[in-house]
């Protein structure tokens, strides 16, 4: 992996983490959820789970760029693809 590719993958990983943080912040700052009273209490708040799950491919890709491992970068891409299908709320 060339230095340019490593920088590009690292920048992409950082961008994914930033987008995940923005999503979490916007979900926290959003209005009150009407259906919140109908759900059981969560052990870990939803926005924190969103940040963890959405930033995981970015962190894995950054590690792959630092270690110069194409396999790790491909694994990060596959995990990002697995997160991409959207599901509608009930």
Tell me the number of structural domains: 1
Structural category:
mainly alpha
N-to-C order of helices and strands: HHH
The average pLDDT is 75
Oligomer: single chain
Q: Which residues sit in consecutive blocks of at least 5 with pLDDT less than 50?
A: none
Estimate the helix proportion, in percent: over 70%
Give the biggest sheet. Answer: none
Strand content: under 5%
Number of helices: 3
Q: Layout of SSEs?
A:
Layout (H helix, E strand, L loop, with lengths): L2 H27 L16 H22 L2 H14 L7
Helix pairs in contact: 1-2, 2-3
Describe the model.
The protein has 90 residues and is an all-alpha fold. It has one domain. 70% of the residues lie in helices and 0% in strands. It contains three helices and no strands. The model has no long low-confidence stretch (mean pLDDT 75).
């Amino acid at each position: 992996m060339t230095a340019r590719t490593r920088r590009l993958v690292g920048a992409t990983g950082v961008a994914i983490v930033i987008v995940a943080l923005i999503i979490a912040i916007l979900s926290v700052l959003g209005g009150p959820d009407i259906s919140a009273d109908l759900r059981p209490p969560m052990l870990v708040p939803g926005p924190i789970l969103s940040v963890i799950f959405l930033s995981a491919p970015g962190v894995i890709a950054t590690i792959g760029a630092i270690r110069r491992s194409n396999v790790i970068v491909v694994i990060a891409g596959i995990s990002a693809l697995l997160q991409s299908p959207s599901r509608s709320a009930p």
